[in-house]
Design a protein that fits this description.
Number of strands: 31
Low-confidence stretches: 23-33
Shape: globular
Distance between the termini: 59 Å
Number of helices: 1
Radius of gyration: 26 Å
Strand content: over 45%
Structural class: mainly beta
């Protein structure tokens, strides 16, 4: 073989390699570019600018400062009620009350009087569910749609955490006890997670089907615990120690499918994938005050607060930060509806459309 032939073969190999590289580059270049998350402002409205309600409106509740009421997706404030002391509001009901009320009038989201809650204490509305925390802080009742008592639970220890879903209720107490209830008020789980020097429940959540409960518990070796119903007993399926103790109440929330649970801790947001029992941590400043899951997308929205600085963090699908932004406000909230994110701050409400483009 001549030297010229060897050189020719090398040139052919080089040319073929270049051709293959160019071909692959063209193919890969034709692949669609990754999309970016867009938060598009749609409107901002002052809560003092009232508009008439229309047939078919779906009222969205708000509570800002000493005002509460309802607004619509298209930016109309259809009610704004000032309250002097305390108030409770949900998508179904609202009420204002004082520190020593022996009974409380409550109203439908339309403004029509729904009934009277004949209980001393502090009402709490969660969607269409009505609870009253009784004086002394160690007992509560659930009421029906007319405000009549359905069932009562009493303990000797103060209630320190509370949550409900369509299929159950759970309460945490200062002595470290967790108690969950069926829809009709029967106790179906009761145990103490333990493991800490001082057993107190600082945050609790219950899954939509009522089968799972989770809590942030204890002081001096605080931990996060998830338990499930197991016959007449509770079976702990996950727990992890937390690096620092939180001295404030922490939010715990399951997603609708009960395959993810989020919880606040000192320094951030904890996430547990219940399918794989994997744990994730997202550092956040301040306290997590709201967790809202979008119905028609993989987005989850977290509202956290440190003094007057509020931060909205967007997660996708459930544990990756897709975006975040901050604003200053003395009072704030978030709500989610389809592809819209509603943000309340002091005396204004804004709507952002969330999309990938």
């Amino acid at each position: 073989m001549t030297k010229f032939t060897k050189i020719s073969k090398k040139i052919k190999i080089i040319l073929i390699t270049i051709a293959i590289f160019c071909f692959l580059y063209i193919i890969l270049a034709l692949r669609p570019l990754s999309t970016e998350l867009h938060l598009t402002p749609e409107w901002t409205e002052n809560i003092s600018h009232l508009s008439s309600a229309k047939e078919g409106d779906v009222p969205i509740p708000f509570k800002l400062g000493q005002s509460m009421g309802y607004f619509t997706e298209d930016g109309r404030i259809i009610s704004n009620i000032a309250y002097p002391f305390k108030a409770a509001i949900s998508s179904s009901w609202y009420a204002s009350y004082s520190a020593n009320s022996s009974s409380t009038d409550f109203y439908k989201n339309s403004g029509e009087k729904a009934g009277v809650i004949d209980e001393y204490g502090f009402p709490f509305f969660d969607k269409d569910r009505i609870y009253v925390f009784l004086p002394g802080g160690n007992s509560f009742v659930q009421c029906d749609a007319e405000g009549k008592r359905l069932w009562l639970y009493e303990s000797y220890a103060p209630i320190t955490a509370f949550s409900s879903s369509s299929k159950g209720t759970v309460a945490g107490f200062a002595d470290g006890t967790l108690v969950s209830f069926t829809k009709d008020g029967q106790v179906d789980q009761k145990f103490q997670p333990g493991g800490s020097k001082y057993p107190i429940i600082v945050g609790v959540g219950i899954s939509e089907d009522g089968n799972l409960i989770a809590c942030v518990s204890g002081q001096n070796q605080q931990r996060f615990v998830i338990a499930e119903k197991n016959g007449g007993h509770s079976k702990i399926i996950f727990h992890e120690w937390l690096n620092e103790d939180s001295n404030s109440q922490e939010l715990v929330k399951f997603n609708r499918s009960a395959n993810t649970v989020w919880y606040g801790y000192k320094g951030g947001l904890g996430i547990v994938d219940l399918k794989k029992l994997n744990s994730y941590k997202i550092p956040l400043k301040g306290t997590v005050i709201q967790i809202e899951e979008a119905e028609n997308s993989d987005f989850t929205y977290i509202l956290s607060r440190e003094n007057s600085k509020c931060t909205v963090t967007v997660l996708e699908p459930f544990n990756q930060v897709a975006a975040s932004f901050s604003f200053t406000a003395e009072s704030a909230f978030i709500q989610v509806n389809k592809d819209s994110l509603f943000i309340g701050r002091d005396n204004k409400i804004s709507r952002l459309t969330v999309s990938r483009k």
